[in-house]
Each structure stands twice: as structure tokens, then as C-alpha cells.
Amino acid sequence: MKYKLAGRVVEIEALNEGTLDIMKAYVYEGDEKPAFEFRVTKDEFEIEKEAWVREYSSEIENCLISHRLYSWLLEHDGTYLHANAVEFNGWGYVFTADSGTGKSTHCSLWKQAFGRGRVRVLNDDKPLLYRAPDGVFYVCGSPWCGKVPDNINSQAPLAGICILRQAKENTISRVSPEKAVLRLYEQAYAPDSEAAADKLFDFLEALADNVPVYDLGCDISEAAARLAYGAMRPKEDL
Amino acid sequence: MRVKDGFMLREVGATKVIIAIGAMAREFHAIAHVNTSGSIIFTGFKNGKSADDIAGKLSDMFKVDFEHAKSDVLAYADKLVEAGIMEK
Question: Global pTM?
Fold first, then answer.
């Protein structure tokens, strides 16, 4: 079955109904040839099942598929980021932080502040980021997300990335590209080789040079969402 | 003493960091910042050099006596062991 993920057509053969179900929103029916194809073999599945010592077949297969895709993406100018990403007025906004900081809460505040129908969550846990051949960075949905599925098959040019932290007062400031790379590395796909780590750093360096990254200290208020949007909003979105 | 498998040095702008990769990244997700001497010591041990080899290099580079350099190398290696990056 062909799917469109991170702007590329890929062919993935899944064995499990549960896997097919979570990926169905990303099915691609056009004529473009896949840039990447793979299938999860029964052997791979059994090996992984042993390692997990659990019975959730679709979870195991999802894990195998997503990791294979993430590794491939790293070779092709992309990665996932542990983050929550929303689309608003045609632009993508990404909020990254350690688990439990309040990424989803902050994105709910965007919906509250700007309208539920206007702010759409692209992915609430691991959105995909990639650089298109024209150099524009995009954030997009992917089937692999948090415990309560919240993702859509859509993408938007990246307006900015916030590194979120809890604070009593709402503040936002730009982070230097150098610091941004190191902070984003900690939330990106863990590379499995030195060559892959170099690829990830190259991608993050290009990302931080082209997309503004901010430190956002925020409380749980609509004012926090408005402050973030005001700072991150591109000039074209006035 | 040796650097455990799964650690590498990377420069980001003027900053030098030690990062974990592969299976090690699941245990060690933080990034360790190192200075120039630290990067030389880490790279030396990673490439299989002895404390004496590394101390000799530092002694030449920074014009300090060999014994002083060696005690710095060993003290730094202890810190890397404590951080889980090296093992004895």
C-alpha cells in the first residue's frame, strides 16, 4: 500500500489490521512512484515480539514501521520531533518539551484563543519535520502519535518552534541557532549510528538557521497562546 | 579505561558535546558539554590511546608539564566514568 508521509510517497506492507487502520488516513492513491519501500517480515515481527514480551501486535508492528521510516527520513532531510504541532492560518507551529511540561495543554489554549475549527492539531506527539527540495521546512502529521490518537494528514510550512517550559509569567525570546540545535536534538529521533547522528545534526543546523526557535515560559492561559502566536507569526500572516 | 560503545563527539558551532547514539541513547539522553581539553581527552580514549599518550598531547599543546597533564587526564576520565560515558 502506498502512503504519503513527510511529503514523500512510500510503500509499506503491514501485516496487522490495527496498523492498517491507524495508517489509513495517509493512503496515497496517485501515480507517483514510492521513494522508499519496505515490508515488516514475520521474522522481524517475531524477534521484536520476543523483545517486547507483550501481545499488542499492532503496537509492535507500528514500532517497527515507524522506526524504519524515521531512519529513512533522517537520510532524506527530515526527522520527527517529540512535540505537539498545530496548523493555523496555513502555517505550522511546533511546541516541544519533555513529557509532562504541558505541550498538549498549550495547544488546547490555541484552540480556545483562536477557534477550535481554525487551529488543527497535526500530531500531538511526534510530528514529522522535513525540508522540501526548494529549501522550505514543513511540519506534517503522521500516524504515530500519543496515547489518544490526535493527528491529521496535512502539512504546513513551519512558522516557528517553541521550546516550552512552565512559568508563572508568560515570556518568549529567541534562542540562538547553536542552542536550538542542542535542545532540539534531545527531542528528536535517537540516531542509531554516528553517520545518522551527523545527518540529524546537519538537518537540525539547517532547520535552526532557517526557522526561528523560541524559549516560551508560559502559564495555562489564553494570554500565553496569544503571546506565542504574536511572536511566531510570520510577516506574511498579518 | 575506555569509552563505552555508543558515544561520539560533535561540534555545534563553537560548542563541543558528547552525545549517545543507538541503544545507548535510550539510557543516556542528555548531552554532555565539554571544553577543548575534554574533547581531546574523550577523543583520545575513544581512539584507544592511553592516558600517557593523551597527557603527552595536552602537555605539548598547552605547554604544561607532563605529570600535571596526566593528573588532569585521569581526573577527567574519572568524571566520564562517573557520567557513565567511560568504563574502567
Answer: 0.90
Answer yes or no: do B13 and A193 touch at CB < 8 A. no
Tell me the C-alpha to C-alpha distance, in Å, between residue A2 and each of A9, A61, A68, A129, A236: 7, 17, 15, 20, 34
Burial A5-15 (b: 16+ CB within 10 A, else e): bbbbbbebebe
Contact flag A182-B15 (C-beta cutoff 8 Å) = yes
* Cell numbers linked to A55: 501481545
CB spacing of A197 vs B19 below 8 angstroms: yes
Rounded CA-CA distance A220/A217 in Å is 10
Q: CB neighbours (10 Å) of residue A88?
A: 20
B-chain residues within 8 Å CB-CB of A190? 20-22, 25-26, 29
Name the one residue in this structure whose C-alpha cell is 492539531: A121
CB-based contact, A205 to chain B, within 8 Å = yes
First-to-last alpha carbon distance for chain B, in angstroms, is: 4
Closest CA relative to residue A155, chosen from A135, A128, A134, A126: A128
Q: Give pLDDT tens digits for A72-97.
A: 999 999 999 999 999 999 999 999 99
Cα atoms in the Cβ-side hemisphere of radius 13 Å centred on A190: 16
